[in-house]
Amino acid sequence: MIRGIRAVLAASSLVVVLAACVSAVEMSSDSSQHRVSVAASVSGATGVAHSAHGEVPASDQNSQLSYQTVSQAALAIEQKKGPEAALDYLDKQILNFPSVSGICHAVAHDIGHASLDHFGGVVAKALAVRNDVCGGGYVHGVVEQALAGSTDIAHDLLRVCAPNQDGSCWHGVGHGVMFATKYNLGRTLKLCRSAPSIRLAIRCSEGVFMQLFTLDDGIGHAAGQGFVLPAPTSAARTCAKTPSTFADTCWFYSTTVWLQLHPDDWKGLVTWCRSQSGVDAKSSCLRGVGSRLVKYHPDKISFGANICSRVGERYVTDCLRGMGSYWSVHWKGKKEQSDVCRHIDDSDLASRCRKALA
Hints:
Low-confidence stretches: 1-64
Number of helices: 18
Radius of gyration: 20 Å
Largest sheet: none
Structural class: mainly alpha
C-alpha cells in the first residue's frame, strides 16, 4: 500500500515538473538551464538501487512521463534552433545524467520526425544533420517518418537512403516499413531483403524488431496505429518462426519485451533467455541482455558484468560481447567496444571481457 502511494505521489510530482520544464524551455534559450532542470527530473524518476540478488527494483514505472519531459524540452529547442541544437541538448543529458540513456532513443526519433517539418519535408536535408547520439535515433526517426505514409514502399525504401546507403539509415527503414505495412512482419522482412546487401538487410531487420518489441519507440510513435507490446511467450514464438537470416536479430531485441513488462528484472530475463530452445537462441538473447544492461545503466558497468557472470558459463562471453557492442554505440563509435572492460571492477571478469572483445 505504501509503495503504491509513493508511486502515485512520484508520478504526480513528475507531472508538475514536466509542466515546469517545458515552460522553462519556452521562456529561456540557455541550454545549461535546460540540462539541469529536465535531466534532474528524469534522474529522480529512474534512479537505480541494486539488490543482493542482482536485480534493480522496478524504478522505471514513470518512464513514459520521463520520456515526455525530455522529449517536449528537446522539441521546444528544435523548434527555436533546429535539430542540431536539440541533438546537442540530448547529448549533454546523456553525459551528465546517465539515467536518461534508457529513454533517449525514442526522444531522438521524435527530433528526427520534427526535422522533416523543419526542412520542409526534404529528407536529404534532414539526413545531412548527423549526430548519432542515443544509438542514431535521429536518423531512424527521419527515415521512419519519411516512409510511414508511403504508398509505394517497395520503391521508396530503395531511394530514401541513396546514395550513401548506410546502415543506420537502413535501420530507420525497418522502423518506417513496419508502419507502412501496418506491422505486417512477414511483408516487412521480405521488403528488408530487397536492400542492396545482406548487411543492410540485417540492419533493416534491426529496426523492424526494435519497433515490434520496444515500447519506448511506441510511445508517441505508434499511438493509434495498432501498436501492442507482445507478451514474452509471443515474442519467443515469433523469433522461433523467423527466417534464419533475421533470427539472431529477433532474439537479440526480444529482451526488451521482458524488461518493459518487468523493469530491471535481470535475473528473470536471464532465466527467460535460458529457457529458449537451441544454443543460438540462448546466445543471441543473452547477448541482448548485455546490450540492454549498458543501454539502461551505462554508469553501472560492474553491475552489468556481474549479471553476465551469472548467465551460465557457456554464455558469459555472449553477454559481455553484448555489453561491448552497446558501449561503443553509447559513445557514438568514439570508443572501442573493449573499452567497456576498463570499467569492470572484478579483475577476473575484466580479463574475460578483454578476451571476449579482442
